[in-house]
Amino acid sequence: MTKEREISLLERVVSLCKRRGFVYQGSEIYGGLAGTWDYGPMGVRLKNTITKLWWKTFVDDRSDMYGIDAAILMNANVWKAVGHVEGFTDPLIECTKCKHRFRADHIRERAEKKMCPTCGGALGDPRQFNMMFETNVGAVRDSSSIAYLRPETAQGIFVNFKNIVDSFHPKLPFGIAQIGKAFRNEITPRDFLFRTREFEQMEIEYFVKENEWEQYFELWRKHVRDWTKSIGLAAKNVHELEVETGDRAHYSKRTIDFEYSFPFGRKELYGLAYRTDFDVRSHAAASSVDLNYQDLDTGERFMPHVIEPSFGLDRTILAVLLESYAEDELGSETRVYLKLPAHLAPVSVAVFPLLKNKPDLVKKARAVFDSLRKQDFAAAFDDNGNIGKRYRRQDEIGTPLCVTVDFTTLEDDTVTVRDRDSGKQERVKLDELTLYIEERIVPA
Ligand code: ATP
Q: Distance (Å, rounded) from C-alpha 335 to C-alpha 44?
């Protein structure tokens, strides 16, 4: 694919997202707010489906995982303890002429030459810019009331480590999982959902004995890979990058970045890090609370070590949309469709009456729709415009199956079911419809 073609793929996805209610620009009617995006009705459904699948895979289907939902606002000492107040920074560099700001590590060559990539003017010296959003808690605005919006969900997990141990007495290894918002005042938010200032993370801190970290690191490496498959990302688009010592976060002894082939380059989708006992040890020292883990069999007390798989939800959604975007010729017309894995589609099955102005057809179609909805299918009803237009709309949101109620239905209780990818239609008996749909939308 040429660069122009690839860049236009992102533009096409952005435009489809707006047109079909997946994602809108944040605060759009006021000209937007850089680095923020709002999910519309289809986007929320996709997002909820992905988080539900993640939670089922990594929490509910396992017996060694504990889910939490911690507060976004946390005591400022949390961030002091793990070095974020000092060090959660990115190198900022500014052009002395056009005043554009860049992340120095994103424009390494130009930064070395001190030449602005936008106007060719002289770049100033890089300085460290702290990315945490600061606010004040309570009525007094002074240094004692400073709080930060969390820049990662991980610390909400570490500060609850003792609570989970005290309530559930889990045996090592075990994990604590959380899905929630994180905030970073990114210097250059860009590439749609890829780099935003408010985003969602799905994170796990998996506590292990120090001498077992390598084995669990490998296991989680496989779990992350399997997850990318389960959401339909082609293996050829997912890459593992062993992060060099100098590029790793200060707390990490080993990191693998899972990168995805985005149209704007191969970039981090997820991270897998061995955080040692850095966080638990730092919080124990700063809070003076004993955070040692006691082995119930041997009575031994020690600091657990941690493997952290970290999944960005918004980057997941972007990768899934890019992977699914397709164009083809169907019935001599060009069409756009989302080849979403059926179990992720915001609408699993859409129901249409062939004609809007025939009450018998509408009534029957409504009954089919109501019955599917009662059975908990993500169903939609559409009688707007001609049938071709309805198919196009459903194709663009990735609906795998469209059911049409026509005159034959009124005679023999059969409907046509159209497959999104092939455009082919089959007649299916109404009393076999549930099974027919289930076989096609539930992953094998
Ligand atoms: P990058 O190098 O791209 O800035 P990071 O290494 O700082 O990312 P982590 O701190 O490892 O990212 O965060 C874990 C995950 O959270 C990332 O793999 C990514 O999926 C997601 N994430 C991080 N920053 C952003 C952001 N600004 N917008 C959207 N998702 C993000």
A: 24
